[in-house]
Amino acid sequence: MTTYATQDRTRNPLERRYALLGVALIAPTVLILCAVIVYPLVSAIDLSLFSIYTPTLKGNWVGLDNYMQVLGSSGFWGALGTTVVWTVGTLLLQIVFGVAMALLLNQNILFRSLARSLVLFPYFVSTVVAVLIWRWLFNDLYGILSHLLIQLGVVDMPVDWLGKMPNAMESVIFVGAWKFFPFVVIAVLARLQTIPEQLYEAATIDGAGVFGRFFDVTLPQLRDVLTIVILLRTIWDFKEFDLIYLLTGGGPVNSTRTLPLIVYQQAFGLNQMGVAATYAVAMMVVMLAFMLIYLYQARRQTP
Amino acid sequence: MIAAKRSTTILANLVTWSLVLLISFPLIWMVVTSVRPQTELFQIPPTVIPRSITFEHYVKLLQETPFIRYFLNSMILATSTTVVVVVVGTLGAYSLVRFSYRGRETLAALVLFTYLLPSVVLIIPLYLMMVKLGLANTLTSLVIAYTTFALPYGLWLLRSFMAGVPEDLESAALVDGASRMGAFVDVILPQALPGIISTALFTFILAWNEYLYALVMVNSDQARPLTTGVMNMLITSFNIEWSLLMAASVMMSIPLIIIFAFLQSYLTRGFGAGGVKG
Asked: Domain total for chain B?
């Protein structure tokens, strides 16, 4: 800090004017971010120390009572477990499908850009649309999915995809993978196209087969991009609300109720805003580790 | 050898395209259901190809439901959010990339951090804030709420696009006597334009698709956007009309289809710049 200050004084007037202009240009951003992010964030931590009834918004200070209540409840730990199952499950599918699809699309296939667009589409389509389509596909009476499986002889009765366990969790994980794996495809595909052809030629001369080339050349080259993709998707899947809320609403009997859902439920279903804020803060603390690793990795990889 | 190579190419094509079609099947099914007569919908077993095509569900959607209201709300909402984010973000990104002042690096890291924050943490205080400001149930409250995720994201994208504009171009303009802002308008903006378009498209799509804030902040059809509006049609209907909902889904995806058809290169560019490389 002090070195900066001395530098400031030795700078010429033009540079100081520039610095001022720079500050003026960033000022709107800083003001907006303070108003809509910093203040609410501090306020959320503050709220977590109160007991507030949502309809009247009246409350009184309860200190750490909310935290004792939340951390001592099976609700929190159960939801945390559910969140971990959902995140790990869907992330795993996203990565495996994503990398496989990227490898396929990296080949010389017909109408490649059309194929790429079609694969990309689920990622950009609204979660509401995705959920409506899947709930129709999953429909217990007229859903095509059960009928196709019956015709193929896989099952002999329509399947209850969302109404019982473990079907509900599997369905949510699967729809999540369908919706979000294109992110992995695009990231990996972009990286694949920059791997020098010589590396593959050299490996082929050394006698490496298809799998040898994948594990010795492709995978090491993908390491950096996969690290970033896995971190980002972990964070995003962990905090996913829309998809799960709209598919199952957390049911059956809370078995797909992840942490973001419990926050919403406490705040706007049970009208306990203070407790909801406590859940939110606790959830953020869990996520913090991943966020910090991502920040570190992102900085390391930016030249 | 050549024959073997050809057969691998055919195999690669077959495998890839079958997977691509499998992945797109839900979307194809959405379109098929939306143009199918109601009577055909409930036959067991269902057929994949419709025997006749009808647009009655679209007509019903536009005439008998508040769909158009929701659509306009979403348009206003997504456009306003995009304008705010692009204007504020472009200036901010220019500052972060090309000026030096104390705290610049910390600020850049903080922007990235905010971009990862879960909405459920911010939503309770933001909701209370909107109630206090008397903005609950307005589109304005949603524009404000959407900047919480769209601004950090847009700023981050724009920052990496602007970093890609060669510094020499700006210096040359300055030597020729241009002011900093003059150089920004004449040199940086045109150079960064593809990046700005790409950021605008991403912001628009994010705002268009947002659900949670809309669910919490808006509780009247006057200000309800498409996401919560269409979902409401599902929840409140006595018996669910799937063909109507699929027609709504198709209509809701129209801006996206347009972007995909004509501007897709901007989307892939945005992916490379912001989301992944950091």
From this structure: 2
